[in-house]
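Give me structure tokens for this 335-residue protein.
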Amino acid sequence: MHARKLVLMLMAAVLVVFCALPARAQQIPKIRVSWVVPQGNWASVLWEKKDLMRHVGKTYNVETIRFQGTPMMITALAAGELDVANLAFSSFSLAIQNPQMDDLRVIADEAGDGIGRTYSVEFFVLKDGPIKKVEDLKGKVVATVGAGSSVDIALRSMLRKHGLEEKRDYTMVEAGFANMKAMLVEKKVSLVPGVLPFSFDLAQVGNRLFTCKDALGPTQFIIWAARAGFLQKNRAVMVDFMEDSIRAARFFLDPKNQAEASNIAARVAKLQPSAFLGWAYTEKDVYKDPNMLPNLDGFQRAIDAQYQLGFLKAKIDVSKYSDLSIVKEAAARIK
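Here you go.
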């Protein structure tokens, strides 16, 4: 009888343990992170390096979600359906001016433009064509990817520097990056923007007239953003999350890992590794900080240009909408 009682007690103890496991798993928060462009956006590749994600499944879980563009990310942030968003400066500032999103915070770097010797968005004119300088665009048609986008802000800023204003001095048409080469070759437009990897093809038929760096200086193009309430509630978890992110980012940016990094990018993008080998995560690529620390001066400068062009109702002081304490603490953990 005593033995039977002991067995029953042991079975009860085992049941308690097994019943507690799902409850514990549910207590681990899931961080939902957005991305748009494979390879170009960190969230598309970082968690492919599972061996470097030391805190996943222990203090947090992660879900990477692909979006078609930033407007849907902002909606998801506002609805509590997304935790960390990769936003361009143009999208971040507009979200801030929405009264419901003034708690949005810059928390980490995603991509800079023209920082140091790294890549800057290019603007092409047809080889052997009539456009030799910016002033030659007067009376012409130029292509943009969307009014108020980060690339569009750079384009308008450069033309304004040379005394040209839309409608008065030139006409703008919108198109996707994939269509820019054909539009230039067919002479439907006189100037097109090019971003990686589309700029490789454009360089075959066009000459670079100027870059985003020429227009805005070194710029913080894309950042990671989260809402203040989420950060306050999950600060310790977010430090673990950023530690894993930085460790993986450093792997991708290390030249000795270029082949494996290109293989991962190719797998995510469903392309051949040769499409990325030799430029991805190098100085030929956009700038990515190894500590994921954003360039707030470059971010402020870009948002100021957005305001000057009339796309913002009021000036924004970026320092009031940033919390870099988490990424700094996370970077300090990694030797």
